[in-house]
Amino acid sequence: MNYGFYTTPQVIPQNSIQKTPLNTIIPNNKNSVQTNQTKDIFTYSSPNQTKVPDYPKPTVSKPIDVSIFYIADIHGKMTNMERICAIAKQFDSLNQDSAKLKLASGDILLGSNPMTNKVATHFLNWAGVTVNALGNHELDATPAAFAQTLKDAKFALLAANVTVNPNSPMAGKIQKSKIEEHNGEKFGIIGTAPSDALERVGTRESLDDIKIDDIDTTIKKVQEEVNNLRSQGINKIIVVSHIGKDMDKRLAQETDGIDIILGAHTHDLYKGVKDKDNLLYSKSGHPVVLTQIGKDGEFAGILNAAFDKEGHITKVKNNVVRTGTFTRTLPFKTAVESIIGKPEVLGVIKSAPPSPKDRLIANNPHGNIIVDAMRNELGTDIAILNAGNLRGFFAQGEVDSRRINDVTPFEDKMMICSLSEKQIVDAIKVGGKSFLHPGHKPGILLVSGLEYKMNDKGDLLDLAYIDKQGNKIKIDINNPSTTHKFTVACDDFFAYGGDNYLPVNSNPDFVLKKFDVDKNVYTANYIKKHNGPIEIKEDNRIQIVKA
Fold first, then answer.
1. pLDDT, average across residues 274-301
2. Hey, what domains does the chain have and what are their CATH numbers?
3. Which candidate, 268, 266, 262, 254, places its Cα nearest to that of 222?
4. What three-state secondary structure class fits 235?
5. Which pLDDT score, from 0 to 100, does residue 531 have?
6. Is the pLDDT of residue 38 over 80?
7. CA 176 from chain center: how many Å?
8. Can you state the angle between helices 330-340 and 78-92, rounded to 10 degrees?
9. Distances (CA, A) of 397 to 77, 351, 353, 434
10. Do residues 91 and 100 lie in contact, with contact meaning Cβ atoms separated by under 8 Å?
11. Mean pLDDT of all residues in 480-488
C-alpha cells in the first residue's frame, strides 16, 4: 500500500513540494516511536486508562488518509502571504487520493490598518483556507472594523472559549467549531483564543466586547465541544489553537477525543513528530499530534496522517516548508497591490547588518532606524519602541513603503508622552524580564536618545540619556527621579500599558499629544529626507552582557 504522501526533504528545488511516504508510526507501545519508512499501518490499541463514552461510530471500510495544509502567526506579512499562496496552489495539485484540509490558527491579521487586514482576509480566501482561529492580533482592530473585514471572509472564525457581547458588531461572527467533509469523511474542527489576550491586545474595546476564558475553563469548554461533535458520529477532531505550546500540551493530555492540535501564539517550530515533545497522549491513552509553525509566515506546514476506523491516528508525517524558497508570483502581487496600491520607493540602503538571531532580546539596528525616525520627526527627547514591533529587516538596495511595513507591520497611533526617569527605568526592567520568559516575550525596549546595559538574566546595569548634542547624562537606576521628566515618542500600545511595560491605563495623564498616524509614516519621511544612501550600523546603544 503506497500512500504517495509528500514531505519536504533537506534540499528541494525552488518552488516545489516533493512526495514521499509517511514515516512516523504511532506504535502499540506509546513509549517507543519508530521513524523508518513503512508501507504498513499499525493499529494503535488503547490501554483504556479512562472509560470513554460509547459514542456513535461511523462505518469505515478502509483507513482514512488526510493531508492538512496549516499556517499561523503570519502577522500581516504580505510578501510571505504571496509566497504561501503559491505553496497552497501547489498543495492543491498533489495527493488527490487523500482528504485535504487547509486551516489557520490565528494571528494572520496584525494591527488596526484596514487595508492590511483586508489583504490578510483576502489572502486566506486566495489560499483556500476554510478555518481560522481567533488570535490576539485578530483583535487589534475595533469590533466594528473587524466585523467589516470579515464581510469578505470565505472562512469560519473559530473560538470555543469566548463570550461575545450580544450588542457587539462581532456578535454571531465567532463559532465554536465547524464540521467539514472531504472525500466522504467528516472532520470536526474546534478553535481556541488566547487566555492572555489582555496582555497582548492594544484595542481595549475588543476585549470589552469579547471575553476570553482562562485556561482551565478553556480546556473544559473544548472537551464539551469534542463531546458534542462525537455525539454526532464525528471521531476525527482537530483543534486550531492560539493558546501557546505549554497550554496545548495541557489540552492534549487533559482531554479525550482530540487527534491533532494545530498550535500557535508562542511562535515555536516543530519539525517532524517526536514522542513526548509533540506526540502526546490523551486521558484515555490515544495519540495526539501537536504542531506549531514559527512566526511571520516564514514557514508553512503540511501534516499527513492516517486514521483507523475508530478515528485514531496510526501514522503521521509533519512537513515544514520554508516560504522563502517560493517566488512571489505576479498574480498574487497584483492582487495585493489592487488593495494597498503600488509601493513608493523611498530611498536606498547602502549597507545593513544581518538581522539579530532573536529580535526580542537584542539591540537591533533595523529597529533603531525606526526609533530614530520617531524621535527626529516628533522632536522629542527620546523615543521608545518595544522589540515585538520588529518582524523583519532592511536589505541592501532600494527600500519602498512595503519593506517598512514588513519590518514593522503594526499600525498603532503615535503619541508624545511625558515620562519620569522612574517610569522609563521601570519599563526597561519589564522588558528585561523577557530573557526569563518562554519565547522571550514581550521583548526588550528599543530606544533612541538612551543607552543602556543589561545582562542576559534581564538585570538593568546602567542607563544614560543622550541629548541632541551627544552629551551622555547618567540616570541612577537604583534611585530614579519621579519628577525629572522627558518627552517620549511612543505608540499607543506602549502608552496604554500593552505588555505591561507601563501600568494598564486607558486614559493616562502623561500623554501630551496624540497623532492619527503610525511610526511607518515617520520612518518613510525620515528615509526620504536622508541625504544619500543610508548605512544601517550596529551602534551598541543597547548592550547585552553575560550575567
1. 95
2. 65-325 (3.60.21.10), 343-545 (3.90.780.10)
3. 254
4. coil
5. 87
6. no
7. 20
8. 140
9. 20, 8, 13, 33
10. yes
11. 98
Mark residue 391 as left, alpha or beta (left: phi above 0; alpha: psi -120 to 50; beta: remaining): alpha
Predicted pLDDT at 15:
57
Mean pLDDT confidence for 449-467: 97
Across the strands, what pairs with 314?
none
- For residue range 74-93, what is the model confidence (pLDDT) as tens digits? 999 999 999 999 999 999 98
The amino acid that residue 26 corresponds to is: I
The model carries a pTM of 0.77
Instruction: Assign 200 to helix, strand or coil.
Output: helix
115: left (phi over 0), alpha (psi -120 to 50) or beta: alpha
How far is the C-alpha of 22 from the C-alpha of 95, rounded, in Å? 12
* Torsion angles phi and psi, residue 168, rounded to 5: -75, 150
The three three-digit cell numbers of residue 263, written as one number: 498550535
- Report how far residue 112's alpha carbon sits from residue 133's, in angstroms, rounded to the nearest whole number: 18
Residue 40 CB contacts under 8 Å (≥ 6 apart), including other chains: 1
In angstroms, the first-to-last Cα distance of the chain is 57
pLDDT tens profile 499-520 = 899 998 888 999 999 999 999 9
Contact 282, 255 (CB under 8 A): yes
The one-letter amino acid code at 176 reads K
Tell me how crowded residue 34 is: count the other CB atoms within 10 A of its CB.
13
Share of the chain above pLDDT 90, in %: 74
CA pair distance 148, 164, nearest whole angstrom: 16
Q: CB–CB of 301/320 below 8 Å? A: yes
Grouping H, G, I as helix, E, B as strand and the rest as coil, residue 430 is: helix
Cell of 343: 509601493
Give 243-300 as a DSSP string: S-HHHHHHHHHS-SS--EEE--SS--B--S--BTTTEEE-TTS-EEEEE-B-STTSEE
